[in-house]
Amino acid sequence: VVLHLQYRAPLAAPPLLRRFFLNGACAMTLFFVLSGVVLAYGYHRLRPHAPDIVAFYQARFARIYVPYALLHVLALGWFAPANAQELSAAIYINALSALGLQAWFPNAAMQGANGGTWSISVEFFFYALFPALLPCLAYLRRRWGTLRVAAYVSALSALIGFADYVFAN
Question: C-alpha distances in angstroms, 29 versus 23, 34, 97, 161?
């Protein structure tokens, strides 16, 4: 939240604290890790059988895609194209968005309603991989234990976030 406030109404703060505020995007890493942990906890019994996988995707679709699509339909009123050139760009951007691919195309990621929904695109990618990742997680959990796997994943995400903070321009 502070990251977004810094762009609208910058807070008077010492340079180090201001730099910390501007690295708020690192919180998205934490969000994705926590989301993955909750999903893995809720679906740890998911087996690689077609009916189970189909049920998983149906649940994700109903929970995520329906409100996501509704948001985009509502946003079309605010981001209506004014001319033919804008219309072709809008069709391209909204097609990527409807498929959940906008985060993978940098020129489209922050256009129109996509600015606030790029993270859904990343979640869709994770959901696509999730059933394949569960057997790997089960293997690591058997070999190392749940707490150790969680500690390694947390340490890796913290290291990535810290490196971005330290080495950012």
Answer: 11, 9, 21, 7
Q: DSSP per residue over 9-66, as a string?
A: S-----HHHHHHHTTTTHHHHHHHHHHHHHHHHHTTT--S-HHHHHHHHHHHIIIIIH
Q: Which two structure tokens, joined as six digits, stand for 5?
A: 């406030």
pLDDT in tens, 95-124: 888 888 888 887 776 666 666 677 888 888
Q: Do the Cβ atoms of 91 and 35 come closer than 8 Å?
A: no
127, 57 in Cβ contact below 8 A?
A: yes
Asked if residue 159 lies in contact with residue 65, where contact means CB atoms within 8 angstroms, the answer is no
**Measured distance CA(35)–CA(164) in Å, rounded:** 21
Its pTM stands at 0.64
CA-closest candidate to residue 110, choices 87, 125, 93: 93
Give the Cα separation of 50 and 61 in Å (integer): 16
Is 126:32 a contact under the CB 8 Å cutoff?
A: yes
> What token pair was written down for 41?
């906890």
Question: What pLDDT, on the 0 to 100 scale, is given for residue 168?
Answer: 59
Place of tokens 């993270």: 119
Closest CA to 168 of 2, 28, 18: 18
